[in-house]
Amino acid sequence: MSSNKNFSRDSFDLKSIISTYTRHWKWFAVCLILALIIAFIKLRYSIPLYNSTARIQIIEDKTSSSELSAFQDLEVLTGSKNKVEDEIETIVSRSNFIQVVKTLKLNLKIETIGKILDSEVYKESYPFDIKFKEKDSVLFRQNGSFYINIVSRDKIGFSKTEDEPSKNQSFGGELKTDIGTVVITAKEDIIDKYIGYRYKVSLSPIDETAEYFKGKVLIGQISEKSNIVNLSIDNPNKEKGRDILNTLIMIYNQNAIANQKILADKTSEFINNRISKIYSSLTEIDSTAENFMEGRGITDIASQSNLNMNISAQSEQELQATTVQLNIAESMVNSISNESGYGLIVSNLDNNAVQGTVGSYNQLAMQRKRLLESTGESHPDVIQLTQQMNSMKSNIVSNLKSVVSNYSVRANNLSKQLAKSNSKLYSTAGNSRALNEISRDQDNMAALYQYLIRKREEAQITAASTSPKCNVIDAAYNSSKEPVSPKKSIVYLASLILGLLIPFSVIYVKELLDNKIHNKLDLEKLVGSTPVLAEIPSMGKNASLVKKNDRSVLAESFRILRTNIDYLIQSKTNGKKNNVIYVTSSVSGEGKTFLASNLALIFANTGKKVLLVGADIRNPKLYTFFDASEEKGNKRTKNTGLTEYLTSDVKIKDIVKSTVYGETELDIIYSGKIPPNPAELLMSSKMESLLKEVSETYDYVIVDTAPMVVVTDTLLISKYSDQLLYVTRAGSTENKVIQHPIQLKEEGKISNLSFIVNDVPEADLGYGGKYGYGYGVNKKRWWHLFKK
Question: In DSSP terms, which residues pair with 55 in a beta bridge?
């Protein structure tokens, strides 16, 4: 029995599962309609966002990298090729966005006040001009708003808050607002079209606005090794989104060009200073040579020193190169030590330590310069950069001094080597030796002078031909006419899914937590081989006792029950009538008295002699269905009932009451007064003799007994029954309660057990109810209301 029940519960019935949801199709339809309405409202009143996209190519330095192209052959400044990742960070830097906000005045926002949503107007799309009296430095830190009404061509309404009444005044007058004094002037050519409109004017701090748009701009490479970068932004205004991207690219290029020009100017300044000093030294050496030759009477000694000059040529060349590097290093030490500010440093030494430190210092210097444009020197970021630059400058000076020391040692060694080779020259001609020394100085200075002249020209050419850091492949454009948010298709699809998911989830959870019996099919899965005779449809407030020739759904269900009971009675051949039928339930309120009353009437309608016995003497309810005049509440005013029969010498004929309900006649034994010891009364032998006697006199004896789970009354007299009808109520009786009568049956305490499902909703009726109840009854459909 138990294994059969478990098998039934575990079996997978796809049709039943689908039916669980399809019978609630109205809820699915309602939820779908509501979800679509909500989606429509969301789309109708959401601010659409449009995507703007731009594409640029980062230009890489194809030459040996240096910050000064004028010193490429000396490799005096080092660096690396442009890294796209670094350039991306530079593009979306905070300083760049501050410049974008200032250029486009993005911190000033003007919105048209609508009934539900406010819409932003951009550029010249509003009928007035705004002028602030405060300085930009003050306005850049302001945060506030005010409201403007266009009253007429000459007047406006002004209020500081949305709910504050407007004060009218003429265009051109000064308005005192929380963000300063403002002057509003009308645009005469379009003001008439906007009379009656209301606007909100908001001003936000530059820093906050820059951070906001920085977070909105998305930037990235199209592939890992590509120099092409995509920029995009979503904004309610298409033109505004395009302007932000185009301006950002423009400012990035402008800053790159400005940085290149600053470096070029610094290079030119350094070269000019060196040329001036070398020219003075060269003039002095030329004068020394002239005076020496005039004083010694020397005219031409080239032929005398030719041989010795060839010998010392190699040493002279090495000394010359070392001297040039030494002079450059010393000049850099002097230039850095004498500079009190934080300008760019021109590094021109072939030294990795100096190159790397100078490059980092120059980047910090340019970052500090851009930051000072929007902040003061007391700003924490500026102070931090200054401290870093001071530390790096000290490292640069220390490294340069170390380089000067190394070049000095090398120059001394070369000088000693050259002096050794030149000692031979002194043995031939002292004048030639002295003149050669002067000539070497002339050659050194002349070579350095020519070199710097050439590099100055190259630096000027470089400064004149500075190029941007990126090429614009695609200027900002709107990738689609449709908004990227909210998307109609996605919103409607989500609403459809949500509209189906909500009722589905509710029904699923309800079914998952449901532990009640709902129809005959549910009960059959629990009771196994025990018969379920019928399911009684729910009639709601219209429930009443069946009458003769009644063709209602309720009457048909009881006729089916009558037929099934007759079949059970006739199937037994024990020599008895088998006509004593008990009607019980688990607890009170499951409809056993209602079912017993109707069952008695449906048997009586066939002309059979039927007796209805009210054996529930604890809580009698039969009188509520049959309006007996002598029954008032729980007290009897006339005659006696079952209680009086069991407690006294009252005869059976004295407690049987003939009743006519409609055209149907039947006999009823009411329960009588409520006794103090109902269980003991029912155990008396008189109860057995009563049932035996009436079973012989009547064709059917219907006994309304007490609930079996609550009290033991029914179990005490169950041995006198031929059929035990156990009533369950759809949506009320729990599954686990059914195990009680099943267990009693297995233990042999009750027999001839059958079940009935009462109060089954139409949607939950099993096959018997769906296909049988109401057959032949003409039902009036809703469309018949429109027919005459």
Answer: 230, 474
Q: Which residue in the block uniquely carries the two structure tokens 């005192």?
A: 176
Q: Report whether 247 contacts 109 (CB < 8 A).
A: no
Using DSSP's 3-state secondary structure scheme, residue 535 falls into strand
444/422 Cα distance (integer angstroms): 17
Task: Give CA separation, 63 vs 68, 71, 461, in Å.
Answer: 11, 12, 16
Rounded CA-CA distance 173/568 in Å is 102
Q: Identify the H or E element spanning 89.
A: helix 84-91
What angle separates helix 84-91 from helix 238-296, to the nearest 10 degrees? 120
Q: How far apart are CA 704 and CA 597, in angstroms?
A: 8
Per-residue DSSP letter, 715: H
Specify whether the CB–CB gap between 187 and 94 falls below 8 A.
no
Q: Using CA atoms, how far apart are residues 640 and 673, in angstroms rounded to an integer?
A: 8
Q: Whose CA is closest to 581, among 765, 772, 760, 756? A: 756
Tell me the two tokens of residue 3: 């294994």
Which residues make Cβ contacts (< 8 Å) with residue 371, sequence separation at least 6? 95, 379, 381, 382, 385
486 upstream amide cis, omega within 30 of 0: yes
Here the tokens at position 660 are: 């006519």
Cut 0.70: pTM above it: no
Q: Position 287: which residue type?
A: S
Question: Can you tell me the distance from the alpha carbon of 118 to that of 476, in angstroms, rounded to the nearest whole number?
Answer: 26
Rounded distance between C-alpha atoms, residue 617 and residue 44, angstroms: 67
Strands (DSSP E) found in 99-179? 108-112, 119-121, 128-132, 144-150, 155-159, 167-170, 174-177
Is 355 in contact with 349 (CB distance < 8 Å)?
yes
DSSP state of 83: P
DSSP per-residue string spanning 167-222: EEEETT-EEEETTEEEEEEE-TTTGGGGTT-EEEEEE--HHHHHHHHHHH-EEEES
Mean pLDDT for back-to-back runs of 10 residues, the chain (788 residues): 42 74 88 93 87 90 45 43 79 92 90 83 83 80 88 88 86 85 87 88 91 92 88 91 94 86 77 78 73 60 56 71 77 78 74 76 81 78 81 82 83 79 58 68 76 76 70 89 87 92 91 86 88 88 81 89 91 78 92 92 92 90 69 46 88 89 89 88 90 92 91 88 93 90 91 92 69 55 51
CB 68 within 8 A of CB 459: yes
The closest of 68, 469, 406 to 256, measured between CA atoms, is 469
Q: Which residues pair with 49 in a beta bridge?
A: 485
Burial of 40 (0-12, 13-18, 19+ CB in 10 A): middle
Give exposure, 532-545, as e/b (b: 16+ Cβ within 10 Å): bbbbbbbeeeeeeb
DSSP track, 266-279:
HHHHHHHHHHHHHH
Q: What tens digit of pLDDT does each residue of 501-542 get?
A: 999 999 889 888 888 888 888 898 899 889 999 999 988 776
The Cβ of residue 56 has, within 10 Å, a number of other Cβ atoms equal to 26
- Which residue, among 639, 573, 581, 575, has the nearest Cα to 610 in the 3D structure? 581
